[in-house]
Amino acid sequence: MTSDSGMLKRIFKWMGALLAALLLIVAVFAVNAIWFKPFFINVFFERVFIELALEDPELLTTLRVLEPLGIDGHNARLTDVSPAATLAQNEKVVRDLATLRRYDRASLSGQTALSYDTLEDFLAGLVDGIPFTWHSYPVNQLFGVQSNLPEFMVSRHPLDSERGAEHYVARLEQFETKFSQLIEDLRLRESKGIIPPRFVVEKVLREMRGFIGAPVEENILYTHFADAVAGLQDVPEERAEELLAAVRSAIEGAVYAAYGELIAYFEALEPSAIGNHGVWALPDGDAYYDHRLRVSTTTDLSADEIHALGLREVARIQAEMDATLREQGYTEGSVAERMTALGGESRFLYPNTDAGREQILADFRVIIEEIDREMPAWFITLPKSAVEVVRVPEFRQEGAAGAYYTLPSLDGSRPGRFNVNLRNLKELPRYKMRTLAYHEAVPGHHLQTALQTELTGVPQFRRVLPFTAFSEGWGLYAERLAWEAGFQEDPFDNLGRLQDELFRAVRLVVDTGIHRMRWTREEAIAYMLDNSGLAETDVVAEIERYFVLPGQATAYKIGMIKILELRERARSALGEDFDIRQFHEVVLRNGDVPLTILEREVDSWIAALQASRA
């Protein structure tokens, strides 16, 4: 017994020492992973994503990566937009880039090397942009807290439980705090001479006054909540009434007060917004625009090169459209004039009524379902997530783009969304519907972005990181691919496709014209009207978009040109061994990447196939 007892004591002592050693090792790894350069680069990749997400509760709600773990407290908070938070984020990206570059890139291979290169490009772009931290316009007619936050609340905040409803109320009560942070940010920009164009001030004032001008019970924040709570089976009627009263009180108080303060700020700013100018008028404006072009296109193309490319593409596409128009009997006037006339023909228009709007949404769904069935012939991997067709909220439709896509949640609980702007159905003739659906949904943004969110075996940041030239280049390529697949055989549908490609070529001209060649708003509008044949309301909204998003619009055509260039390179090199499904797999299998990395991946695939034939 004594001997057994001593042995047990020694065993317990040894086990205790082992446990202590293991805890120490875990602690060392934890401290290293959290505060220093992690031993393993994949731990660093995840740390970058986790730190970013934890500082952005609205992003966490959008992605829904914590909800499957039973963690949802972030759904009761709003993201900090104060100058202090912005500066802290700048410091973080500088640290992250420095830490990343301490790893030995030469020792990495495969997906780990690709993750390194992708993250380095992204972080380097952010660091290069630090001198221009305050150069953008965080409140504008296209996006910003004043429009994005209500849309976020109605389209992304989860309202599938009583707890979600309570979180909704908590977020509404924080509107005043968030708007105060925003106004502090705006005042700092103003002190640095960063004042938006006059039309921006006028339009956001009109938008915000309209948003709070209706009774609370008619505000989208209230009506959306009321509809959602009415559908909750496990919430007693008395509790639902309490929640509705809390939402009404929060809107009457915190929400409307927040908008009142922001309206007052812009009313005071209005006399200082004396013109409609490109970013050349801002401090170091030319350098800022060069930076925006590099980040948007992920190339080193200069403004002059992009402008010249745009002029060439406009001429080429117009020549193709001219031939098709003549075949259909439209021979008089410029291409733009003939397309304008075409767009006014009643046979191509839906009634500009509520019934017309319901019908156009239904028809978009049919178009998507039709092409979706044929995608296995063109793609190896297809997304699991579905796509919905929804209307852009009316309160923000005036300044919003004609359409846009919202990515699905990472946990699969929320589908992707094709958002259609129905402010004026004359902007959506029937012959343009197919190419719009193909760009925003299938085989465009939804197919590409949903696949990215569903990537496995890669760091989390790879599932959400955006590169505009890649994603928008793919969207424009998808329009052409659908035509090649036989889904736009009607010559008028093909004219709609060509007009949209022309529209993207015109963007190269007007974006550089506004920000480098100092075109006025009116000159840019006139050029687009004279060359595109788009409705004037659509043209005005687009040109005003370029003023507040310098460089972004150039990414579409440049990305498309690169993807087509790589496809032709592969087809030429591989001959009969070229497989369009395999090519698409190579392009999409890594999610969004800079165009330089995409080119490297395609070239490696070509080389590997050629080597296997040798």
Present the secondary structure layout:
Blueprint: H1 2-35, H2 41-54, H3 57-63, H4 83-100, H5 110-128, H6 145-155, H7 162-172, H8 175-191, H9 198-213, H10 220-230, H11 237-269, H12 285-297, H13 303-327, H14 335-343, H15 354-372, E1 387-391, E2 403-406, E3 416-420, H16 430-440, H17 445-453, H18 468-484, H19 491-515, H20 521-532, H21 536-548, H22 555-574, H23 580-588, H24 595-613
Parallel strand pairs: 1-3
Antiparallel strand pairs: 2-3
Helix pairs in contact: 4-5, 7-11, 8-11, 9-11, 10-11, 13-19, 14-20, 15-16, 16-18, 16-19, 18-22, 19-20, 20-21, 22-24
Textual characterization of the structure:
It is a single chain. This protein is mainly alpha-helical. The protein folds into 4 domains: 1-36; 37-132, no CATH class; 145-275, no CATH class; 296-346 and 359-384 and 425-561, no CATH class. It contains 24 helices and 3 strands. It has a 3-stranded mixed beta sheet, covered by helices on one side. α8 packs parallel to α11 and α18 crosses α22 (555-574). It starts with a helix and ends with a helix.
Tell me about the biggest sheet?
3 strands, mixed
Percent of residues in helices comes to 55-70%
Q: Give me the secondary-structure category.
A: mainly alpha
What is the molecular shape? globular
Number of domains: 4
Average pLDDT, to the nearest integer? 93
Tally the beta strands: 3
Number of helices: 24
How are the strands of the biggest sheet laid out side by side?
Answer: 1-3-2
Radius of gyration: 27 Å
First-to-last CA distance? 75 Å
Strand content: under 5%
**Uncertain stretches of 5 or more adjacent residues:** 15-35
User: Helix and strand string, N-terminal first?
Assistant: HHHHHHHHHHHHHHHEEEHHHHHHHHH
